[in-house]
Amino acid sequence: MNSNPVTQSLDLTGKVAIITGGSRGIGRSIAIGFAQNGASVVVTSRNLDSCESTAGEIQKLGGSAIPIAAHMGRLQEIKSLVDQTVEAYGAVDIIVNNAANPLMLGVGEITQEAWEKALNTNLRGPVFLVQEALPYLEAGSGGSVINMLSNAAFMYTPNHLLYTVAKSGLDAATRSMAAQLASKNIRVNAMVPGTVDTDMVQAMPESFQEMAAKGSLLRRAAQPDEMVAMAIVLASDAGSFMTGHTYFVDGGQSYR
Prior knowledge:
This protein has helices at about 5-10, 25-35, 50-60, 75-90, 110-140, 160-180, 200, 205-215, 230-235, and strands at about 15-20, 40-45, 65-70, 95, 145-150, 185-195, 245-250. The chain is α/β, with parallel strands linked by helices. Strands 3-2-1-4-5-6-7 form a 7-stranded parallel β-sheet, with helices on both faces.
């Protein structure tokens, strides 16, 4: 019997993926899922120990992964991340811009330092990472960029201005990059997780967690692993005709 063509289209064998914020939460689940589907994975975040832990877990499962510490708010570290990836694996085929700074402040509280801290990590970093990796994305057989957004950018969210501005900007950047890079066989899409049971959410007040979890049609928070399937589709040949769009994986939470 021939192999299932649908299963084949999801195979990431031979692809090299950079997962920012890849040491925990959604990023960790995506890193493991990509590796299980054949990709060589670069697990990156600010904390090298956490990156090493996730990369080691992938290696124990039989996958290929390396840890690289990098701060997405620092341009030189972004360049170094790409350089080290190419030195280790010789390519960059997939980028998942998942790292985020959850600094949430509203009008009246924002300082110049807070503005730069939030926007540099949440918006400038992802764009510059794609720019640094662009020659390698172009050189491959077809690149894929996945930008992780937040449903906060599509709802009425008081006191979240910094976060929503950055994520809304990344949404716009997704469409602009998709339009520019389509001719180079590079697809650019975005995902919008809803409330997901991650460390970032768990750090919020319990009352906020309960409200956020019950704000979706499914009336619960997602687990990080529930974000993996869509990411694999967008990264693989299964998503070969998908670019320039924002996909909601939020349990029916946005636009309510």
